[in-house]
């Protein structure tokens, strides 16, 4: 970034942090203004997570931090020292896709695919929150994730299928 208020000659101001990213421990020196999104994409080369608005309004940058979904564009990396971060690259288990990834394929739930990593990470967080009891709940709880292609019907169908599969045997 070119706009710093650092005094000349004081050297770069970075902070050491440790993150566990997709199961791998990373020791990093980050400038205090570095967002988690930029750290993931530009330092760690995990470009599956997308930058849409960069202002917390589209959900393209959604990742899981300690299992909870967050907008990584609004999160400073230094604030997450010691955290576990999961991105779209960390969801599959070897060759086996995550059930939500599989459901997105089965429901043809993407067009350009730009929103898809954020949609899937957000849906993983949604399912672990356990609040969605219906398709309407899924729609409401996914409302922070914008799809400019308008693939919502298939996205919601995919997430709802994964929700019902996850709840099989626990729902009346
Ligand atoms: S890029 Fe983070 S919410 Fe849009
Ligand atoms: S599939 Fe294109 S933005 Fe959602």
TrEMBL record:
Residues 15-91 form the 2Fe-2S ferredoxin-type domain. The keyword Repeat does not apply. Keywords: 2Fe-2S, Iron, Iron-sulfur, Metal-binding, Oxidoreductase. GO terms for molecular function: 2 iron, 2 sulfur cluster binding; metal ion binding; oxidoreductase activity, acting on the aldehyde or oxo group of donors. InterPro entries: 2Fe-2S-bd, 2Fe-2S-bd_dom_sf, 2Fe-2S_ferredoxin-like_sf, 2Fe-2S_ferredoxin-type, 2Fe2S_fd_BS, Aldehyde_Oxdr_Iron-Sulfur, Beta-grasp_dom_sf. Signal peptide: none annotated. Pfam families: Fer2, Fer2_2. This is Aromatic aldehyde oxidoreductase iron-sulfur subunit. It comes from Melittangium boletus DSM 14713.
């Amino acid at each position: 970034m070119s706009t710093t208020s650092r005094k000349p000659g004081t050297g770069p101001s970075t902070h050491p942090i440790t993150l566990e990213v997709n199961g791998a421990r990373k020791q990093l020196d980050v400038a205090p203004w570095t967002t988690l999104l930029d750290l993931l994409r530009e330092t760690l080369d995990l470009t599956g997570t997308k930058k849409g608005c960069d202002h917390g309004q589209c959900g393209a940058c959604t990742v899981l931090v300690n299992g909870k979904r967050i907008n990584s564009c609004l999160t400073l990396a230094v604030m997450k020292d010691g955290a576990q971060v999961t991105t779209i690259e960390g969801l599959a288990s070897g060759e086996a896709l995550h059930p939500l990834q599989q459901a997105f394929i089965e429901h043809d739930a993407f067009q350009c695919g730009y929103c898809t990593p954020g949609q899937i990470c957000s849906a993983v967080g949604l399912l672990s929150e356990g609040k969605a009891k219906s398709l309407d709940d899924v729609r409401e709880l996914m409302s922070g994730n914008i799809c400019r292609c308008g693939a919502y019907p298939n996205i919601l169908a995919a997430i709802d299928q994964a929700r019902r599969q996850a709840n099989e045997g626990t729902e009346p």
